[in-house]
Design brief:
This protein has 390 residues and is an alpha/beta fold. It folds into three domains: 5-96 and 234-263, Response regulator (Rossmann fold); 99-232 and 266-272, Response regulator (Rossmann fold, 3-Layer(aba) Sandwich), CATH 3.40.50; 280-382, Homeodomain-like (Arc Repressor Mutant, subunit A, Orthogonal Bundle). Helices cover 47% and strands 14% of the residues. The chain has helices spanning 16-32, 67-74, 99-112, 127-142, 162-175, 187-200, 217-222, 234-249, 280-292, 299-305, 310-321, 325-343, 348-355, 360-371, 375-382; strands at residues 5-10, 35-39, 59-62, 80-82, 95-97, 117-122, 146-151, 180-184, 208-213, 228-231, 259-261, 265-267. The strands form three sheets. It has a six-stranded mixed beta sheet with strand order 7-6-8-9-10-12, with helices on both faces. It has a four-stranded parallel beta sheet with strand order 2-1-3-4, with helices on one face. Strand 6 (117-122), helix 4 (127-142) and strand 7 form a beta-alpha-beta unit. Helix 1 (16-32) crosses helix 8 (234-249), helix 9 packs parallel to helix 12 and helix 12 runs antiparallel to helix 13 (348-355). The protein is globular. Mean pLDDT is 90; it is low at 385-390.
Length: 390
């Protein structure tokens, strides 16, 4: 009979991101029934729990975000996996959501709505915010779009004042050119931005479209208007961390290279539900394509939704969206196929049907043309890993 191991979880329970990590760890535990788990209720940045000092367990999964936690876990000398971007303890395996892919997804969301001016609201004391900001800015600049940046002051900085910070943010929002698409580094920053816009009577999403990160559903729905948000795959991140720790406690050697988990999609809400295009017919066409691309529509179906000839639709669409209507249909289908390949075990024939492609061969050829990988290779690279063994 396999000995039941004791595992400590040093992960806060006060936010949606961390609770998603816990859900993934729980899923792995329930599948394998391996561990007795020690976890306490704690906030982000909390001091290490007192019981950890003399704890005699077998492994730890920790979100190491303070030097106090880092110092204590360094002294434990037991298998450990880090699920924080802070990287305060080197030479241990770590699992994190892919912040650069998160930024790309947010940027593409705003580009698809026709924005040519962008802004990022960040918290530079955190690695994950800096990585998102760097990628978002680079993507904008590579497309010759303007990108404006706001760096929030650290809350623990000497002399910090919420009143002063809000005043500074308000002045920045007033100074931004409109219309503009803004990525907030996480949902709480997005909620603050929406409050400022409401106070300044700036129309959201028409003048300022906002997208956050984490999909903290309650917080997003509390916002006025409700906040769109990139969905990090925290469940998979937690599952990966648990799987890594399991391998370590079995004595396997693991690579210290990061496992970066791609986001699973975007929860689209009213804060970005707009097209910054001054052409009502093209906006109508875009909405029709977005809602129906995976049902097998063609450009002929789009023409039934707008009072334009095919030549005029193609010309105006290419000018404003920088793609043809057909390319936009295929792009949305490929995005949907990527999610299904990552998140389900559906066969290629089933995915073909669910994404509106006429047959599996055409789907595979289109997918490889856009992603530079076959669907099977993409699924192999993006499904749950097997532990980064060396």
């Amino acid at each position: 009979m396999t000995e039941r191991r004791s595992v400590a979880l040093l992960i806060e329970t006060s936010n949606a991101y961390a609770r998603g990590l816990l859900d993934g760890i729980i899923a792995y535990q329930r599948e394998h029934e391996l561990w007795s788990i020690y976890v306490g209720e704690q906030d982000r940045g909390a001091v290490p729990p007192g019981w950890l000092k003399n704890w005699k367990g077998d492994g730890i999964i920790a979100r190491i975000e303070t030097e106090a936690i880092a110092s204590m876990v360094r002294r434990t000398h037991i298998p450990m996996v880090d699920v924080s971007a802070a990287r305060l303890v080197k030479n241990i395996p770590w699992v994190e959501t892919d912040d650069r892919l998160i930024a790309r997804m947010a940027a593409q969301h705003l580009v698809d709505r026709g924005f040519e001016k962008f802004a990022f609201l960040g918290k530079p004391e955190f690695n994950w915010s800096r990585w998102r900001q760097d990628e978002f800015k680079a993507l904008a600049e590579n497309s010759n779009f303007e990108c404006f940046e706001f760096s929030s002051s650290p809350v623990h900085e000497k002399g910090f004042s919420w009143t002063k910070e809000r005043k500074r943010l308000k002045a920045w929002v007033e100074s931004l050119p409109k219309p503009i698409g803004v990525m907030a580094c996480y949902d709480f920053a997005g909620q603050q931005l929406l409050d400022i816009c409401r106070e300044l009577e700036i129309a959201v999403p028409e003048q300022v479209a906002v997208i956050g990160v984490d999909n903290d559903v309650r917080l997003c729905r509390l916002c006025t208007p409700p906040l769109s948000s990139v969905i990090p795959d925290t469940h998979r991140t937690g599952y990966e961390a648990a799987q890594l720790l399991d391998h370590m406690m079995r004595g396997e050697r693991l690579s210290e290279e990061a496992i970066l988990v791609p986001p699973s999609g975007i929860a689209e809400r009213q804060s970005s539900d707009v097209y910054a295009i001054d052409d009502e017919d093209i906006v109508t066409a875009l909405r029709f394509i977005r809602e129906n691309a995976c049902t097998g529509i063609t450009v002929a179906d789009v023409l039934k939704a707008v009072p334009l000839s095919r030549r005029m639709l193609e010309h105006r669409f290419q000018k404003l969206v920088r793609r043809t209507p057909h390319a936009e249909i295929v792009r949305i289908r490929i995005d949907r196929a990527c999610r299904l390949l990552r998140e389900t075990n559906l066969t290629l024939s089933e995915i073909t049907a669910r994404t509106g492609f006429s047959n599996p061969d055409y789907f595979s050829a289109a997918f490889k043309r856009h992603m530079h990988l076959s669907p099977r290779a993409y699924r192999k690279e993006n499904k749950l890993s097997r532990g980064n063994r060396v």
